[in-house]
Write a structure and sequence with these properties.
By secondary structure, the chain is mostly helical. The chain has one domain (3-266): Ferritin (Up-down Bundle), CATH 1.20.1260. The chain is built from 10 helices and 4 strands. Helix 1 (5-14) packs antiparallel against helix 2 (18-32), helix 5 packs antiparallel against helix 6 and helix 6 (155-183) packs across helix 8 (222-233). The structure holds fe (ii) ion (2 copies). One fe (ii) ion binds next to helix 3, helix 4 and helix 7.
Length: 267
């Protein structure tokens, strides 16, 4: 019997227990690779998201400044990245579960994303565990899932904002982070971040591909629609500039990069 993809994705999304979620996520991707059916299920609100009771979620301003100066600061940074990756597991399953009218290839793409996000989280958790910490030992904020909630009504918005903006920002900041961990001699963390960086280019590419697909289905012009959505969501400015090479590799057009640079990059 093939797996019912949407109900399986919902189960992965809703699981609260960390160990079970990782196991279920890994096993579900494996089972779905043998084939799946697209039997629709009722979609619940994004509040059904499963997460362990820790980390404590606090406003971004309540979080301590992170850096590279001490081991504690570096662990806090690793925890923050692990938290992003944990959310990314939920985002991948939510992208499958919530948007049930996409072509089959979309689901194959997001199964791949779910597998890789689970891997990213597990790798980062290993580094925390080695230092006798675990996911949940530092506070975190809920900005990423808030954007998932804000874009839950329309897959076009989800693709533009989550992979098109937030995962893409990861590409901008990761090379400098890799360099700083390399400077502290933490080569295994560097390897993990390099894996994440490489695979995240693929996630952004997936998002941009499906964003363009939906635009063409709806008779929308992709470039101006992307710009209009970014303006609509009033995203924060970010510092540090764009990683143009990675973004071009991920499928951004020059027009999009010029717009983002003018609109968002602070000094
Ligand atoms: Fe990731
Ligand atoms: Fe990702």
């Amino acid at each position: 019997m093939p797996v019912d993809l949407f109900s399986a994705a919902r189960d992965c999304l809703k699981e609260n227990n960390l160990e079970k979620k990782i196991q279920l996520s890994t096993a579900t991707v494996k089972r779905c690779r043998q084939g799946f059916s697209l039997k629709k299920v009722t979609v619940e609100s994004t509040h059904c998201v499963g997460r362990p009771c820790k980390p404590r979620l606090v406003p971004p301003k309540a979080l301590p400044r992170r850096g590279f100066g001490t081991q504690q600061a570096r662990l806090s940074l690793l925890h923050a990245i692990a938290h992003i990756e944990f959310n990314a597991i939920n985002l991948a399953w939510d992208a499958i579960y919530r948007f049930q009218d996409m072509p089959e290839d979309y689901y194959w793409d997001y199964l791949q994303v779910a597998q890789e996000e689970t891997g990213h989280f597990s790798l980062l958790r290993t580094h925390l565990n080695r230092a006798s910490y675990d996911y949940g030992d530092f506070d975190a904020h809920d900005g990423l899932w808030t954007m998932a909630e804000n874009t839950a009504e329309d897959v076009l918005h989800r693709m533009a904002i989550i992979p098109g903006v937030l995962e893409a920002r990861g590409l901008d900041v990761t090379p400098a982070m890799i360099k700083k961990f390399a400077d502290t001699g933490e080569t295994e963390i560097v390897e993990t971040l390099e894996t994440i960086y490489r695979e995240e280019i693929g996630h952004v590419r997936t998002g941009i591909f499906w964003f363009r697909y939906i635009c063409s289905q709806r008779g929308l012009e992709a470039e101006s629609t992307f710009i209009q959505l970014i303006k609509q969501y009033q995203l924060d400015e970010f510092r540090g500039g764009l990683n143009k090479a990675a973004r071009i590799e991920a499928g951004f057009s020059q027009q999009q990069l010029d717009f983002l640079e003018a609109e968002f990059v602070g000094n």
